[in-house]
Amino acid sequence: MPPTPLPVLPLVPSLVPPADKVPALVRLTGVEQEIWDRALPYLDVRDNDAHSLHAYGLAGALLTAMPQARAEVVLPAILLHDTGWKTVDPARILPAIAPGSHDPETVRRHETEGSVIAHRILTDLGYPQDVTARITEIVDGHDTRRHALNADDAVVKDADKLWRLTPHGLRTVGSWFRLDAEQTLRLVLSVTYDRLLTETGRAIGRALAACAGFDHGPRPGFTARTPPAGGDHTG
After folding, report:
1. pLDDT at 24
2. How far is CA 220 from CA 114, 211, 223, 224, in A?
3. Cβ pair 184, 174 in contact under 8 A
4. How far apart are CA 233 and CA 68, in angstroms?
5. How far apart are CA 119 and CA 6, in angstroms?
6. How far apart are CA 162 and CA 123, in angstroms?
7. Disulfide: which of 29, 78, 82, 233 matches 48 by Cβ 3.0-4.6 Å?
8. Which of 149, 140, 163, 158 is nearest to 83 (CA)?
9. pLDDT at residue 101 above 90?
10. Could you write out the three-class secondary structure of the chain?
């Protein structure tokens, strides 16, 4: 027997609190907004603009659990980390990052070029030289270096990889390689979870994977439901 649908109950807009009255919303402000504005022209390939903003939000969450990591290093680094893909021939990008790829030079190039771009942007903004050096060091190796240089680097690496398990990340990766949702989740988990470096990153990864698994995998005892018009369920 199909489930009995609930009647729609429109809410008065005044019952929805304004953005500045709810917790955990993320907004770019101050120097981070300036960094983003200058990074954006380099992020119009490979969905790097949306990817970088999702990773920025994840980095902010990781920072709350890792007081030894510094926001003034981590957040600019995550906004700038993939700017170097702009310098790579688009035809080489997906072959370079696909499973089984044998083109490490292309991946390495986006790191080295991204480090140069990050240095130029931060220098133009007058960012502290010592902090700029830490940021560019992180960008130059954020994918190919398996170990973390320090807590700042660990947060950047985990935030970058956790994006893959977000709804946007799974949709994007699936579209790149023409995989269905369940195949995408299995692929992403196989190349992501064991490379997460922090306890908090692994906890977030487990949570995202569990939600995605119930959305896209077999759900014994569940009846398929169509979300009501107007958006997702709350709760």
Report:
1. 87
2. 46, 15, 9, 11
3. yes
4. 37
5. 55
6. 29
7. 82
8. 140
9. no
10. CCCCCCCCCCCCHHHCCCHHHCCCCCCCCHHHHHHHHHHHHHCCCCCHHHHHHHHHHHHHHHHHHCCCCCHHHHHHHHHHCCHHHHHCCHHHHHHHHCCCCCCHHHHHHHHHHHHHHHHHHHHHCCCCHHHHHHHHHHHCCCCCCCCCCCHHHHHHHHHHHHHHHCHHHHHHHHHHHCCCHHHHHHHHHHHHHHHCCCHHHHHHHHHHHHHHHHHHCCCCCCCCCCCCCCCCCCC
Tokens of 167: 């709804």
pLDDT greater than 50 at residue 205 = yes
pLDDT, tens digit (0-9, with 9 covering 90-100), for 33-75: 999 999 999 999 999 999 999 999 999 999 999 999 999 999 9
Query: In this structure, are residues 155 and 198 in contact, taking their beta carbons and an 8 Å threshold?
Result: yes
Residue 160: CA count within 13 A, CB half-sphere: 27
Residue labelled with tokens 């920072």 = 63
First to last CA, the chain: 23
Q: Which two tokens stand for residue 26?
A: 């993320």
Average pLDDT, the chain: 92
What does pTM read for this prediction?
Answer: 0.89
| Residue 39: closest CA among 91, 116, 109, 94 | 116
What contacts 133, CB < 8 A, 6 or more positions away?
A: none
Identify the sign of the CA torsion 146, 149, 150, 155.
negative
Q: For residues 193 and 213, is the Cβ–Cβ distance under 8 A?
A: no
